[in-house]
Specification:
212 residues, alpha/beta, Rossmann fold, Arc Repressor Mutant, subunit A, 2 domains, 5-stranded parallel sheet, 10 helices, 51% helix
Length: 212
């Protein structure tokens, strides 16, 4: 396979070690990689970015990942975005997914998790014209959930931790964990980000105000 035919990943991270290790992992897995130290560097080239996806760190100097993502959309760049987060940044990742990110992965990430996220991004790039059909499919999938499971999912969509969801619903954190496991099994997903993708495609949480 020629380099030109390989799927391109625009990797944005201020950590040189991450750029080097993730870049190597991607190149040996058959991807082309362009690296950027900051979101500002990426945005300077936004008008001429080659088709592919953007692998974007959330915590960076000058401009964080959410700001970069917003600037990309304002500039009319519709390349799919996968967010990289540190441990404990799930609420921020949820905000990114509300803003249109395809997926998020937590550092340090396994190779398979990274590749799965990029496959989701590739799929989004190829099916951008089927948003309406994806939404209907997602709504049908949510119909299998019980009202309480939907309540728990709604809390996850807001980026709330299990303890807060439990308090809001008047149940124990352990019960929230059980509902969370059950809803993920019913939806046929293995990660929170997959469950969130379905929820956002179905329009769950759209009426909620963005966090200040």
């Amino acid at each position: 396979m020629s380099d030109e035919s390989k799927f391109l990943v625009h990797l944005v991270d201020d950590d040189e070690a991450i750029r080097r290790s993730a870049g190597f992992m991607l190149k040996t897995s058959g991807f082309r990689v362009e690296t950027y130290e900051t979101g500002v560097q990426l945005l300077k080239k936004v008008r001429s970015l080659e088709p592919g996806c953007i692998l974007l760190d959330i915590r960076m100097p000058e401009m964080d990942g959410l700001e970069v993502q917003r600037e990309l959309r304002d500039a009319g760049c519709m390349l799919p975005v996968v967010i990289m987060t540190g441990h404990g940044d799930v609420s921020v990742a949820v905000q990114a997914m509300k803003a249109g990110a395809v997926d998020f992965i937590e550092k340090p990430f396994e190779k398979q998790a990274l590749l799965s996220s990029l496959e989701a991004a590739r799929g989004r790039l190829h099916t951008a014209s089927t948003v309406e059909s994806r939404g209907e499919e997602a709504r049908q999938r949510l119909n299998v959930l019980t009202p309480r499971e939907r309540d728990v999912l709604a809390g996850l969509v807001q980026g709330l931790p299990n303890k807060t969801i439990a308090y809001d619903l008047g149940i124990s954190p352990r019960t929230v964990e059980i509902h969370r496991a059950n809803l993920m099994e019913k939806l046929g997903v293995r990660s929170l980000s997959e469950a969130l993708r379905i929820a956002f495609a179905a329009g769950l949480g759209e009426a909620e105000p963005d966090p200040a």
